[in-house]
Amino acid sequence: MNLAYALNQYRDRTPSERDTAQRFLDFLSSGDDVYLRTRLDGHFTASCWLLSPDRQSVLLTHHRKLNRWLQLGGHADGDADLARVALHEAQEESGLSALVVLPEIFDIDAHTIPARASEPEHTHWDVRFVVLSPSLVFQLSHESNALAWRSIAELVDSGDESIARMARKWLTVRASAP
After folding, report:
1. For 95-134, how does the pLDDT look when each residue is reduced to its tens digit (9 = 90+)?
2. Is the pLDDT of residue 159 over 60?
3. DSSP labels for 110-160?
4. What are phi and psi of 123, to 5 degrees?
5. CB neighbour burial string for 132-161, b if at least 16 within 10 angstroms, e if fewer
6. Where are the domains of the chain?
7. What's the topology of domain 3-176?
8. What distance in Å separates the CA atoms of residue 55 and residue 70, rounded to the nearest whole number?
């Protein structure tokens, strides 16, 4: 996956997020280390909107370090193919197999991660993909306090704007599907 190409496609497809997409493109061109955690001001991460077989629910994790309900995902750790990273993280964090990642960027979100121990405050430039699951049976990983399938319709009014935005996007995509 060529991230610059995918971000340009996303920018063209999502006019309301043109400025955000441009910020992602600017960060992408800011150095060769943008996929590495050693980039202390920020780095790329990938996450997924992991859908149930009926596409009505999404699997969320109660993140151990951040103590919040979030979509599954993680650091790129040098891998520029963020769709592959999202798929790997989905498999690793859920124990689900036979997952399918859709190659088109679903959402982007730049958010601040607070300083911890020897790690300074930094930005996660998170690129998100839809991942389809054939099963509801997951396994809890060491990275989560809990995993839960949550109704997408109910997440529209969640207190987390990022999760609510993805819920609205997915419901719009489903409504416009043939």
Report:
1. 999 999 999 999 999 999 999 888 999 999 999 999 999 9
2. yes
3. EEEE--BTTBPPEEEEEEEEEEE-S-S-----TTEEEEEEEEHHHHTT-S-
4. -105, 135
5. bbeeeebeebeebeebebbebeebeebeee
6. 3-176
7. Nucleoside Triphosphate Pyrophosphohydrolase (3.90.79)
8. 18
